[in-house]
């Protein structure tokens, strides 16, 4: 229908409205009735195009020229009638009215939207129902729906932060509230659980304020001592008049009305909740009753969340306690690491750097499958086992076999991935044993990033020996980047995409000025590795909520210079000890370690003499100058020497006692073709 005349109170048109009305009443009577209606009234054709609006509709929705000819769902805001297209189709398909309710943002009032089918279209009515509702649009049915909705949302809230977020989302909007403070009673004091809708300076003030300042002279003490009383202050004057000490908080917070609600569980006050308004507000009796009911739901949820938070905190402390407090400082590598816990249950990700003999170092990283306290405990068991097996100088493949047996013995429910590497700073070789773990990234000194094709064995607990190893020669100053799948894999990103993203980050980061050049001192290297860890974590994890633990271990490998390594092949005769002493004496003089000549001569003489008497050749002596002086004597026998406590009348058996007395540490390391007895002596000061 086309509009033909625009009146002050509405637009007259031809079509279903006027024709239907003229059949029973004079035309001017019908139009006056429509114009004078207190409700907003619109008419539309069967396609939903608006053909008539009265004056109230213009007041609410805009001038008639803009409304006429547009569709009903373009005219009526979605907030008033959610899913208006569906309502229109339902009304057109039936013969009975269809209605819904909503809140118009421009007026802040609630309207019942009603569609009535007629011969050639629909009649639409918007009736103001704000005054019929108990509070801002919720009648008894609305109250029940609101309580049910909040109950469901709080049931899904696990942590205290989630409880606060749920209250902000489901409690503040219906009351037009703009601020929230929740504090919990703990050990006689108050702890801030959440603060929303306030300036940062006020939030920080609430978080840091001493308990006495927050309680004394404020409504907090009274609301905590009267657990079933809601305290409401409709204006700053009333609050400050009753509690003068709150004047500063009122001025900084910027609110004008406050409701203080006790949080009570089983008759015990566990804290309070303060809801506030930016504008002055009043509360009727029904609103007070509803707030009291909601505070009971909040209290129950908060108590449950606090228990979860406490258990989760203890579990995280246990998990972090099982990780290295600090990585060891060793000449072979400079290392940095990060551990990012999951946002849910704790997991079993871990890493370690373990100093070995002869300047070598072991690098380990693992991930126990699953989440929970038992997985965290299993992680601690594995890390302890790796430490114990590593210091025995077991080869990587043998160590993984022992570790696999440990995991298999825990039951079918346990499985873990594991990556283990032993780096030798003399030869530059790095031997990897991989049990189902993501491959490491190797960054060459020129910044080239690669992922070596390691032999991949089944995860621990899911495979059987043997476990194969892969040996690589790493150039000095290369990076070995080891990580768990939580760093590169998520629900939104598969592991292939994550590894590609890691490659891009490494490419960019190691090509910047922040990457230390060869020859940089230890402090510069350590700082750069820390920055690189932060860059990787920020690039891969900051944009998502972690659903799995993530561990990252980056090491920069160093070589022992050739000038600090000396090796000699000795004869398998009695002359070997004398030659060993001579070699040691001349080499220590070249290294300006004259203070160690006497003890070193005794050590190498005793070690070589024992080999000649009790073992078999070939015999080799090697001296390494690192942060300690390392003496190694190798032979072709697999027999392990043991200290024997000789009696006063024994003619022998004191050689290893002498070695133990002269050395800082000593031990035996086996290889495929024999063994090596090693000692360490501390270098002179300076």
Question: If you had to describe this structure to a student in words, what would you say it looks like?
Answer:
The protein is an alpha+beta fold and 686 residues long. The chain has 22 helices and 28 strands. Helix 20 (575-590) runs antiparallel to helix 21 (597-614). Mean pLDDT is 82; it is low at 1-27 and 134-141.
Mean pLDDT: 82
The helix/strand class is alpha+beta
Given the C-alpha coordinates, what overall shape results?
elongated
Largest sheet: 6 strands, mixed
Distance between the termini: 102 Å
Contiguous low-pLDDT stretches (5 residues minimum) are 1-27, 134-141
Tell me the layout of helices and strands.
Elements: E1 3-7, E2 10-13, H1 16-22, H2 27-35, E3 40-45, E4 50-53, H3 55-61, H4 64-67, H5 72-75, H6 84-93, E5 98-104, E6 109-118, E7 121-128, H7 140-156, H8 160-170, E8 179-186, E9 189-196, H9 200-208, H10 211-215, H11 219-225, E10 231-233, H12 236-242, H13 247-253, E11 257-265, E12 268-277, H14 285-322, E13 333-340, E14 348-355, E15 361-368, H15 373-391, H16 396-409, E16 416-423, E17 429-435, E18 441-443, E19 449-450, E20 456-457, E21 470-473, E22 479-483, H17 485-488, H18 495-509, H19 522-541, E23 550-557, E24 565-570, H20 575-590, H21 597-614, E25 619-625, E26 628-635, H22 655-662, E27 665-671, E28 674-682
Parallel strand pairs: 17-20
Antiparallel strand pairs: 1-2, 3-4, 3-7, 5-6, 6-7, 8-9, 8-12, 10-11, 11-12, 13-23, 14-15, 15-16, 16-17, 17-21, 18-19, 18-22, 22-23, 24-25, 25-26, 26-28, 27-28
Helix pairs in contact: 7-8, 7-14, 8-14, 14-15, 15-16, 18-19, 20-21, 21-22
């Amino acid at each position: 229908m086309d509009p033909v005349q625009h009146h002050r109170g509405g637009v007259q048109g031809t079509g279903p409205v006027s024709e239907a009305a003229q059949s029973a009443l004079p035309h001017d009577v019908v139009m006056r009735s429509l114009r004078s209606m207190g409700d907003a009234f619109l008419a539309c054709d069967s396609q939903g195009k608006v053909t008539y609006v009265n004056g109230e509709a213009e007041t609410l929705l805009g001038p008639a020229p803009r409304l006429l000819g547009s569709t009903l769902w373009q005219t009526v805001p979605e907030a008033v009638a959610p899913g208006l297209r569906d309502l229109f189709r339902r009304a057109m398909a039936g013969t009975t009215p269809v209605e819904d309710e909503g809140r118009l943002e421009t007026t802040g009032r609630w309207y019942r939207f009603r569609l009535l089918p007629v011969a050639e279209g629909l009649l639409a009515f918007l009736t103001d129902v704000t005054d019929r509702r108990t509070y801002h649009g919720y009648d008894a049915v609305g109250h029940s729906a609101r309580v049910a909705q909040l109950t469901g949302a709080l049931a899904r809230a696990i942590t205290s932060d989630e409880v606060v977020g749920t209250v902000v989302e489901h409690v503040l909007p219906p009351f037009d509230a703009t601020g929230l403070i929740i504090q919990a009673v703990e050990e006689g004091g108050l702890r801030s659980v959440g603060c929303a809708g306030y300036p940062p300076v006020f939030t920080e003030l609430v978080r840091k304020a001493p308990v006495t300042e927050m309680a004394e002279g404020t409504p907090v003490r009274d609301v905590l001592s009267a657990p079933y009383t809601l305290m409401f202050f409709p204006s700053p004057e009333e609050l400050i008049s009753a509690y003068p000490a709150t004047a500063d908080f009122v001025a900084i917070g910027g609110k004008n009305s406050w409701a203080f609600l006790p949080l009570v569980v089983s008759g015990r006050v566990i804290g309070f909740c303060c809801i506030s308004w930016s504008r002055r507000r009043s509360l009727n009796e029904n609103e007070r009753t509803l707030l009291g009911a909601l505070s009971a739901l909040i209290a129950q949820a908060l108590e449950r969340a606090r228990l979860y938070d406490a258990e989760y905190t203890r579990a995280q402390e246990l998990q972090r306690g099982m990780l290295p407090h600090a990585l060891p400082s060793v000449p072979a590598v400079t290392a940095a690491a990060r551990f990012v816990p999951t946002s849910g249950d704790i997991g079993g990700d871990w890493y370690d750097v373990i100093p070995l003999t002869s300047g070598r170092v072991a690098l380990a990283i693992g991930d126990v499958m699953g989440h929970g306290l038992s997985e965290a405990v299993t992680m601690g068991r594995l890390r302890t086992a790796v430490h114990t097996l590593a210091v025995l100088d077991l080869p990587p493949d043998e160590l993984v076999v022992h570790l696999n047996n440990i995991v298999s013995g825990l039951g079918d429910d346990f499985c873990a991935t594991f990556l283990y590497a032993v780096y030798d700073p003399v030869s530059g070789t790095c031997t990897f044993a991989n049990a189902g773990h993501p491959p490491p990234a190797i960054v060459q000194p020129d910044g080239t990033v690669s992922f070596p094709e390691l032999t991949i064995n089944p995860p621990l607990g899911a495979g059987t020996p043997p476990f194969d190893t892969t040996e690589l020669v790493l150039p000095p100053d290369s990076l070995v980047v080891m990580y768990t799948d939580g760093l590169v894999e998520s629900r939104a990103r598969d592991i292939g995409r994550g590894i590609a993203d890691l490659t891009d980050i490494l490419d960019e980061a190691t090509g910047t000025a922040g990457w230390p050049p060869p020859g940089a001192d230890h402090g510069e290297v350590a700082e750069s590795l820390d920055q690189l860890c932060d860059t990787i974590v920020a690039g891969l994890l900051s944009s998502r909520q972690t659903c799995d633990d993530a561990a990252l271990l980056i090491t920069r490998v160093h070589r022992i210079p050739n000038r600090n390594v000396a090796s000699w092949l000795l004869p398998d005769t009695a002359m070997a000890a004398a030659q060993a002493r001579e070699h040691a004496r001349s080499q220590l003089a070249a290294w300006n370690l004259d203070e160690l000549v006497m003890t070193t001569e005794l050590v190498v003489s005793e070690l070589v003499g024992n080999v000649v008497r009790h073992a078999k050749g070939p015999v080799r002596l090697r001296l390494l100058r690192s942060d300690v002086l390392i003496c190694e004597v190798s032979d072709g026998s697999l027999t392990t020497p043991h200290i024997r406590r000789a009696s006063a009348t024994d003619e022998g058996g004191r050689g290893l006692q002498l070695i133990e007395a002269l050395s800082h540490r000593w031990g035996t390391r086996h290889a495929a073709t024999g063994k090596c007895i090693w000692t360490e002596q501390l270098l002179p000061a300076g």
